[in-house]
Task: structure prediction
Amino acid sequence: MDRKLSRKTPKRKTSILSYWTLQYFLILCIGFIIIVAGALYWIRTTSLEKGLKTAELLGLEIAEKVSGTENKLHIPPDLDRLVDKRTKLFNTDNHFCIMILDNNNQLIYSNPKMTQQEVYTRLSDDLSEPRNHKFAGVTVNVVDADQTLGKVWVLQSKKAITYSADTLLIVGLLFAALILCGWFTIYLLSRKLSKPIRQVAHAAEQIRTGNYDVNLNLDTREQEMNELVHSFREMSLRLQQLEEWRNLSLAGVTHELKTPVTSIKGLVMAVRDDIVSPQEGKEFLDIALKESERMERMVADLLDYNAMSAGSVAVRHERIDLSLLVGEIIYQWKIAYEDQSPEVAMHVPAGALYTIGDALRIQQIIVNLLNNGLQATASGQTTLFEIRLRAEEHDLYVDVQDNGTGIAEEDQSKIFERFYRGELKKSRSRGLGLGLTYSLLLAQAQGGDLTLTSSSPKGSQFTLKLPRWKTPDATTPEKAYRSPVNA
Result:
């Protein structure tokens, strides 16, 4: 059995100006229709009430003109002239009529002329109200000496009382004028609102195609629009910087990884092809091994940084004796670099210094600072370090001072950026420029910080800040953690 694949028809897209103008216009029309309906109902009710009161006044005037003798009604000869004169003041139609009936409901007078049968067709069976609900009428009793001789009926259609052609025309014109004014106002507002949005959308399309050099010269009175435009402008500049940084960092990483690979390849090919002597071949292999180790460190740095940025590196928060931990780190680091004979002086204040953090991560930070100081030492110069521990009320500090050549002033604000390496460091050592960035992330993950305190041609000083261990309550068991430190 064939089954037809059903696809959802995409909704037709329209501009924000057309969409909101149409939406507001429909809402405006519905609102005005409700208002006009209420106004017409009020006009109808008020006009009907006033029309009946006016008809009642006419009936009273006619009743006063009619006289009675011997319980009989007497119609004055000028009553037709009076009625014609008064009806000119009414909005009458073919259904307007005046009837005078006696006590036996017999027709005595009518204007226009009608028969007794027509009276029965106009009034109900008991002659107390109009037979048709489309008509309205009032009755006035003809009284003579406190004796009712008959009654005067003034009958007219409700349509003639309530709505006149002029009234409907005025209401229609007002309704159309309000609709047009409202629509025009909404159109102008929607157009003003959509203009910056269209420009931002156009700029976003340019960024999507890779053109980050967008120009948004918009200055509106609306605070939200200005904030939107400003944020978008800042975002485009930031994206442009990130794109430039990505290209530069990718080129740098490629270059730094390609260099040891090329060197290893050339050395191994020289040994394979017997271009060098056995002794030189052994030296070439040692050089290739060192290059592979450097490349391994660079890949490890890159993996560690990516893992830290993704939040997949676990950082423990344990009670650590900082002075004991730093002493062990220095001792084992000196063993690892015994061939370069670095000298490290450690200054520890009196009293216990306990921090809350991860011993392994603190080791990574301090070892990285020591390695950087070792690389910054001038050729032929003995490497000297001064490590000083300081304590404040809430924080502990580890100052690492080296005697290297220092960091150029223009590079000092950028040393914690990803993949950034100063020109001097590029010429001395190969790396990806992730060591300080990774160390800063590790310090911040433990609630601390890593900063460059000072730098000059005589050396640089970095300061690692860590949170101080606060004495727990007596009910809380106190545990001392000290992870083994590996060189």
Remarks:
- DSSP finds eleven helices and 13 strands in the chain.
- The mean pLDDT is 77.
- The radius of gyration is 51 Å.
- Residues 16-65 form the longest helix (50 residues).
